[in-house]
C-alpha cells in the first residue's frame, strides 16, 4: 500500500507537477538524450544510494503487487557539467517512485535543474545494473561554498543568542550553582549539518541510525507529529511505533517499551517529537538519559529566534525554508548535534561525519544565506501575523469547516521554552499555522481561495500556503481523516491578511454540506 493517502494521490501529483517544473523539464530532456521511451518520467539524485532505496521501496511497498520486481525502472549514471547525477526512469503512474521523492526530500532542487538543463547535450551516461540491490558508482556530490559556512555560523549564533531562562535544568543542560543561569551548549559550526530539505534532514538521520543498528532497534514518534515524519519512519522498512496522544499514559507505555526492548537486547534507537508534546519534553529527556536513545526535537513549525530546546534535544532538526529563509523560493533543512549530550554525541558525531555528504546546490545555499540576513526583523512581523491568523481561526474551530488549529500559542507549557525577550527582539510563536479541515474538499477550497487572495496583493515575502494530506488526525480517542493547510505568515499588513483568511474560510465553508461538531481543539 502506498504511503500517499489514496484520496489525495491526484491532488499531490498535480501539486508536484507545479512545484517541480524545472526538474521535469530536465528529466524530459534527459529522456530524449538517453533514448528512453518518450512516455517515461524520472527522478534525479546526487547520491547513488537513492537508486538502491527507490528500488527497495518500490518492490516492497507498491510495485511488488502491481508490476513485479523493479517496476520496469531504468537506472542511469549521468555526468553533466561537473556533476554526477543518478537517474531512475519509470513508466507513469509509478506512485511508489514519486512517493519516495516526496517522503524523503532528497531529489535535486529546482535551481540545480535549471543550471544543468543547458548542458544536457554534452552529458555522458552509462547504465547502472542493480547488482545484489547495490549500485556500483563513485559519486561527486555537490561543492561546498563559503555561504554554507556563513549559514552554519548564523544558526549557531541564533542557538546561543539568548537562552530560555525558564527551561528546565537537565543532565545535558544544568544550571550554574551560583547564579542559577543555564549553561549554554558549546555548539560549533562542525555540529551543524545542512540538507536540501527539512524532510531530507530527518530522513538521512533516521536512515543512518537504522543502518548503524542493523535494522534491529525501533524508532518512536511521540505525540502529535507531522504525517511526513511518520512516513519517513516507515519508508525504509525498519521497526517503528507512534504514541499518538503524547500524554502521561503514553509516557508510561513508552517506558514499558524501552524496558521490553532492553530485555530483548535491542532498544529504542531514537524518539522524534514536535512542539505539540512540549509538556512531555522533560519526561522524555529523563527517559532518554535512562535508556540511551537519541531524542530528536523536530523544530519545523516554530523558529530558532523564538524557542530554545537545547536543554532537551540531543539533535535539533530545523526547517530552514520557513522562518529562516522567509521565502519559499528555496528549500533547506539542518540537523544540529548537541555536544552536551555526551553519551549520544560520542557515537552520533562520527556516524554523521562518515555518512554526511553535501547535497545542497550552490545556488540554493547562496539564496538561503542571503534571505536569512534579516531573520530577526522578519521574524517579529511574521510572528505577529501568524498569531493573528491562528487566533482568528481558533475562534472559528468547530463552528466552521476548521476542526483544529495547530499553533504553539494553544499548547500548554510552550512558554517555558521561549527565549528571554531583549530590547531588539521579543520572541513569538513562530510563522507557521497548521489548519486541519474536516473534509478534503474544504481544505482544497481554502487553499485555492487564500492563494488567490495572497497573489492578488503581491508583496515581497508574502504569506505562503501549502496543502498536505494529514492522513489520520489524532486527538485523544477521536480519529478523523482530512487534510491540512499549512500557512506560513509573511510580511503583509495584519488586517489585510485576516480579511483574506476570512474570505478563504467562507469559500471553504461553502464547499461542504452537513457539518459535524467536534470537541474544541485547544491543545493537542
From TrEMBL:
Signal peptide: none annotated. It comes from the Eukaryota. GO terms for biological process: transsulfuration. InterPro entries: PyrdxlP-dep_Trfase, PyrdxlP-dep_Trfase_major, PyrdxlP-dep_Trfase_small, Trans-sulfuration_enzymes. GO terms for molecular function: cystathionine gamma-synthase activity. This is Cystathionine gamma-synthase.
